Amino acid sequence: MKKLLNQFKGHKCLVFMDFEGTQFSHEMIAIGAVLTIIDKNGNIKKYKEPFKLFVKSKNRVGKVVTNLTGITDDKLQKEGVSFAQALFAFKKYCGISFKKASFITFGNHDMKILSSSLSYNLDTPREIVSQMQKNYVDYLSFISEFIKDEGNNPYSLVNYIKHFNLQEAGNAHDPEVDAINLAHLYQAFLDNKAIVLEDYYWHCLMNY
Fold first, then answer.
1. Is residue 167 over pLDDT 70?
2. How distant is the alpha carbon of residue 81 from its chain centre?
């Protein structure tokens, strides 16, 4: 756990995030997040109300993404905001913690969506994106060092949730739900050392 805490750079605020992106251009079409405060041992002691926005993309959403998320081009036109507006709103949500927070995602695809969206929206203030990139932590790369499936591959977020016998916060591929699930998974890892050790030793034995 010390290895993970070191990645937080002493930050006491963790923002768990999830982005949904277009099928081909990988632009952000939705952002979900939940800001948490941790104690000195890394345990979450406070949750802020979750954050969620739909984001207008320059290119079409794509049929596969629509089927997964329920997000359509029409929905974005009616309910979405610009990428720049979404980032300003997200920064406001984080408040004074924005520059002293670690931004946690499940896998590195969210950062690819962030970068791709910036390339399509050159008028967006780069300092917001840069701050998120600088303090970004990929939780999947951490947890997969300890827990993998029988094929020695990382689980999906939903299957990690099931592995720890957690109740899902809602439907998958909703960015707010996925952000909350990620926060719950983070805490479950700390609370269930027996599960973690059993899995870790089993995989060490299988790979010996």
1. yes
2. 20
